[in-house]
Structure formats: C-alpha cells, structure tokens
Amino acid sequence: MPVYTISDARNKLSSLRHEAAQGKEILLEDAKRRDDQPVSMIATFLIDSLCEEKTFSFEWVDTPGQGGDSYSLWNKETNTFGIGRTQREAAENFLDNIQEYALVYFDDLPFFLSKNNPSNSHYWYLRRVLRCSNRSDLVNMLGLGEHIE
After folding, report:
1. Residue 149 has what pLDDT?
2. How many angstroms separate the CA atoms of 15 and 8, rounded?
3. Residues of the chain whose pLDDT is less than 50?
4. Which part of the chain is CATH 3.30.160.620?
5. How many Å apart are CA 76 and CA 27, to the nearest integer?
6. Whether the Cβ atoms of residue 85 and residue 72 lie closer than 8 Å to each other
7. CATH code for 55-148?
8. Cβ contacts of 97 within 8 Å, gap of 6 or more
9. d(Cα 148, Cα 144) in Å, to the nearest integer?
C-alpha cells in the first residue's frame, strides 16, 4: 500500500484522489509528527459498502397496557429510543432522536471513538444515518416505513 507524506500528497493530490476513487487505498503520514497514525484516503463507495452491512434492529419495549400509556421503540445497535402515544409518534420521535444523536456523535468524535467509550461501536450505524439525504431516505434505510405511513 503506497504511503505518502502530506507534502508529497499535496503535490499529487489530483492523481491520488483519482487512484483512491478507483478503489486504491492511499496512506498519508505527517512527517513532522511521527507518533501520529497514518490516515487513509479511500473511495467513499467502499466505506459505504462496509456500512451497508450494519443493519438496524428494533423492538417495541413498551406498549399501552403494560404499565404505561405510550409506545417505546428501541434500537439495540445504537441504544436509541423513540416514545409516543402511537407507534407512528414513537417512530417519528426515534427518527428525531437518532438524527440528533448522529450530529452530536460526529461533532465530538474523539470522545465517542475513545477505546473506553461503549458508544464507539455506534460509528458505522450513525454514519449511515448521516449519509441519508432526506427523511424519506432515512425511513427507508431504517426500514420504518410501515410505522411512519
């Protein structure tokens, strides 16, 4: 796998980007900071295909009549909930909550990706959420259409 310093990569960025877009992984090192880990330049479609393997599962953990008067929808992969008086409201609340969580998560990646943080495994799932261009795409990706319509 080719390794370039940042200054070398800067001079060849256009050709390196073209190679990465075709599927080749390019490693970038910072020559001034030898203790830093290299960073990869890689085609987005390859990362997307890795993320697509991460599927979301849902469980209705509360329903009216089980000691409460609301529905609670839970996603175990991200430990995200949605609550509402109807299944539709709970699903809509879940969508709001997971979008907000994804924004907070990606706004503070060093914290969430630390080895001791149990949420570090949420990265690939939340990346899928952020890659949705609109609410309809998010509903389809999560498979919540039957609860929203």
Report:
1. 67
2. 12
3. none
4. 55-148
5. 34
6. no
7. 3.30.160.620
8. 80, 81, 82
9. 6
CB 28 within 8 A of CB 8: no
Mapping DSSP to helix (H, G, I), strand (E, B) and coil, where does residue 42 land? coil
Q: Locate tokens 């909930």: which residue?
A: 81
Secondary structure (H, E, C), 57-98 = CEEEEECCCCCCCCEEEEECCCCEEEEECCHHHHHHHHHHHH
Residue 126, strand partner residues: none
Backbone CA torsion sign across 54, 88, 106, 128:
positive
pTM: 0.85
Residue spans of beta strands (DSSP E) within 3-147: 3-5, 26-29, 39-41, 58-62, 71-75, 80-84
Instruction: Give the type of residue at 106.
Output: F
